Each structure stands twice: as C-alpha cells, then as structure tokens.
C-alpha cells in the first residue's frame, strides 16, 4: 500500500453457528443487554464500556430511533474547511487501495468527513450493494447522532480505533454487520476531521484491523501536523511584527486557543510566572499551552466565525483574566492565510472592533442523570456527590471516588467541568476540578501555596494554582 501503512488483512476464521454474528453466546448476551437498555433500563455490565457509553449517548443525548434501517441523507457542507483537501486526498487514496485489498474478503472500506458524511466507498461489489440497502454510500450520514453506534460515527466521538460487532450496533437493522473505524483528528483543535472504516456482513474482522487503522490514521495525520506547523509559523511571524508596535500584555494563539507566543507582561498578568515557561515562537503542537480564562473558548469560536477569512477583522470582549477579578477588555485580531483564519492575536486592556454579545449559558444542555465512567470491562454510573475531584492527563479525565480511580467516559476536563459545575465543582488548577463539598482540610505550603485535602484519612492533596486561589478561598469562606 505505502511505505508507512502495511497491507490490510481483515479475514479471520469464520464465526460459529453457521457464520452468523448474532448466534454466538457472547453476541446473545450483548443482544439481551441491548434489549434491556433500549427498553429504558440502566445497565453497567454485559457490554464493552466504549459500546455502552455510545448507547448512553444514542438513547439519552441523541434520541436515535433503534428501528432505523437506513442512514439519512447528509446535510450540506457549509461548514467544511477547504484546506482539509490534502487530508481527504491522502485518506481517499488510502481507502481506494485498502478497498482493492479487502475485495476478496467481502468487505467495504468507507471514508467520511468529520461530521460522519460518507465521501467514498470501495471494496467487494456484492458487499457494497448490500451496504447500499442501509444507505452506506456517499452523501449519507453515519454520525452517532444520526445513525447510532457504528464504526464511523463512534470513532468520531472517541480517540483511537473502535470495533462494533453485531448487536453492539444501536440500530437493530445493522446487527448482521461487523465494522471497525478510526478518526483522523486535527492536531491543533483535537476535533475529528475525517474517519476511515471497514465493514463486513455476517462475518467478524481480524484482530489486526485496529492496529492497521491506527497506522492509517497516523499516516494521514502527518498532513495535519505539517499544516499545524505551517500555520504556527504564520501566526508567530505576525506576532513578532506586531510586538514592535503593540505594548502591554499581548499573546498569539492558534485556531484551538493554544498559546504560540506571549509577552512577559501577558504571562505575569495571567498569574503563570513560575508555573508556565514563557513561550516565544512555539510551533511544535505538543509544547503549546492553553490559558485558563473563563469564557475564552466561546469568544475564540465567535471571533473565528466573525472574521470569516478577513485579515482586517478585529473584535473585543470583556473576560475575567483571573477568577474573582473584574472583567478586562480583550481585543482579538485575526491572522489569515489563504482566506482561512489560522490564529488570533490577543491584546489585553484594549477594546477595538466588533463587540462580543454572546451569553454565558449558550450551548449548555440538560444536566446528566449521572456521570458515566469506565473501569476495566464495565461502565460505572456515578452520582456527582461520589466524586471528590477530577484529574486530567492530557485529554483523559480520571474521577477520584470512594470506589477508586475511574476514567470518565467524557474526554476533556472542560467538558467534564461543564457537566459538574452545577453540582458545586470548581477548577482548582489547569489539571484539577474539585468538589467543594468534599474538601476536608486546607494546607498551606512553605512558600504560601495552597493544597486542598480531599480525604483526611489518606492526606489526599489537590494543588491550587495561584490564579485560582482567591476564588476558592472566597467560595470556601477562608
């Protein structure tokens, strides 16, 4: 196929009981769990955690009709970025070659965009005709929101390869299919931009398929990495040019709100001196850091939308730079390349351009009935009161509870924070979210730093960053 991605082998030994995916004992157990769950019962066992988490999304968030037998037509492509064309070209070539390799095994290879819209399908003609009965064909939508648990849609919701076999699919009409998919993600924002999937009717897939998908995604994501470095060079060059004419607190951000460069006064104003190294000209995506300013992600999304590729656009908002502080004027100026916004220059204490009028509660959905976690081979349903604190390790969030350390089914500390704020949880640090009702003691370090003791029996400590300390003291009454 390529020098980086090995040939695709998908054909294992046939399943038992006449080759039916639904006839094995394990498939029957999953089918019984599916009947119970789809009927409204909350379950924790009998299904792989990643599949059960997907079922919860399908039933409770997306309200997907489990009797659906064909994917709906996809919506238009108004939001598609044309500068992802290189990624789609690489992915399409990979999909076409993989389709030739799996044709003899009765399989279909499909690729989608980041919204789950099928862009191309290759493979065995008989399998393709069978797939088309379910509208597994170009211009149909296979996102979880539209079509339930499936290889393409579920891979867009999580990181890494996903397999969905037989009755693990949310829609009963797809229970005779086995599929495996993985998403290709923007290295700047972490958002999915595409997926690649292998589907096979009434036969399982080789255990080697997830490894192949991982290598395929890494190959295609090289294009995203190269684009990220190129964009960062553009933004840093503009930052350097403007620094000579702009005094005060000034920083440059990429499309995802990560800092590429900052003046010393900006770092000091954010309260990060001594905690975060002053960055001037970071292009490597893994070395970028995200400023912890309430409301900044929403303002950044608004700014990118309003700029619409115009290098002359600017807009301002008022944001609390530190918890408890009065809002400070912040002006954003777009950095544009080839008619696309590739970053923002952010000036604090300056108020220029279009005014931001967004609401603080925009986009907030209903509160969850429970917090869903994953441990070993089961899903764990937690009441918010059970959680002492949450700790982030990059995009994975760990919930520390009386039942031990449990991985949150939701990725990203910001997403977990949004669902728990109404239950008395507050950010104590860029990596920690604490349940204020579970704080047992407060300890002061030798340099005046604060630590929250969440369990006095084990002296379990959560560090408090200097920028969050005043707000937490106020809320705790100390």
From TrEMBL:
One of its GO terms (molecular function) is DNA binding. Pfam families: LytTR (PF04397). Residues 376-478 form the HTH LytTR-type domain. Signal peptide: none annotated. Keywords: DNA-binding. PROSITE patterns: HTH_LYTTR. Residues 1-24 are annotated as: Disordered. The keyword DNA-binding applies. This is LytTR family transcriptional regulator DNA-binding domain-containing protein. The lineage of its organism: Bacteria, Bacillati, Actinomycetota, Actinomycetes, Pseudonocardiales.
């Amino acid at each position: 196929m390529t020098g980086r991605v090995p040939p695709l082998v998908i054909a294992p030994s046939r399943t038992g009981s006449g080759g039916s995916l639904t006839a094995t004992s394990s498939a029957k157990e999953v089918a019984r769990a599916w009947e119970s769950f789809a009927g409204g019962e909350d379950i924790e066992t009998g299904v792989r955690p990643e599949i059960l988490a997907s079922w919860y999304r399908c039933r409770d968030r997306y309200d997907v009709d489990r009797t659906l037998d064909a994917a709906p037509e996809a919506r238009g492509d108004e939001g598609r970025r044309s500068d992802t064309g290189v990624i789609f070209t690489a992915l399409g070539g990979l999909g076409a070659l993989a389709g030739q390799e799996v044709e003899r095994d009765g399989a279909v290879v499909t690729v989608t965009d980041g919204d789950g819209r099928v862009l191309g399908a290759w493979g065995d003609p008989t399998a393709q005709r069978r797939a088309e009965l379910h509208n597994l064909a170009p211009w149909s939508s296979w996102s979880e929101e539209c079509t339930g648990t499936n290889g393409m849609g579920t891979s867009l919701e999580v990181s890494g390869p996903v397999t969905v076999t037989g009755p693990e699919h949310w829609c009963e009409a797809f229970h005779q299919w086995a599929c495996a998919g993985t998403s290709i993600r923007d290295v700047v924002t972490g958002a999915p931009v595409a997926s690649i999937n292998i589907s096979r009717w009434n036969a399982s897939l080789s255990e080697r398929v997830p490894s192949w998908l991982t290598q395929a995604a890494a190959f295609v994501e090289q294009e995203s990495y190269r684009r990220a470095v190129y964009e960062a060079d553009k933004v840093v060059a503009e930052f350097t040019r403007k620094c000579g004419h702009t005094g005060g607190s000034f920083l440059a951000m990429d499309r995802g709100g990560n800092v590429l460069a900052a003046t010393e006064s900006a770092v000091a104003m954010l309260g990060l001196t001594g905690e975060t190294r002053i960055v001037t000209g970071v292009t490597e995506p893994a070395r970028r850091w995200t400023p912890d300013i309430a409301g900044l992600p929403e303002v950044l999304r608004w700014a990118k939308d309003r700029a619409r590729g115009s290098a002359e656009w600017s807009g301002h908002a008022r944001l609390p730079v530190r918890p408890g502080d009065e809002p400070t004027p912040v002006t954003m100026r777009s950095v544009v390349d080839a008619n696309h916004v590739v970053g923002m220059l952010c000036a604090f204490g300056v108020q220029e351009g279009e005014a931001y009028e967004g609401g603080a509660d925009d986009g907030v959905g209903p509160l969850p009935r429970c917090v869903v976690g994953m441990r070993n081979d089961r899903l764990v349903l937690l009441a918010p009161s059970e959680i002492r604190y949450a700790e982030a390790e990059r995009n994975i969030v760990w919930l520390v509870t009386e039942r031990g350390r449990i991985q949150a089914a939701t990725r990203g500390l910001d997403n977990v924070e949004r669902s728990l704020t109404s239950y008395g949880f507050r950010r104590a640090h860029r990596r920690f979210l604490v349940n204020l009702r579970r704080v047992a003691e407060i300890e002061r370090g030798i340099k005046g730093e604060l630590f929250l003791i969440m369990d006095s029996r084990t002296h379990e400590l959560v560090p408090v960053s200097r920028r969050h300390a005043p707000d937490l003291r106020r809320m705790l009454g100390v």
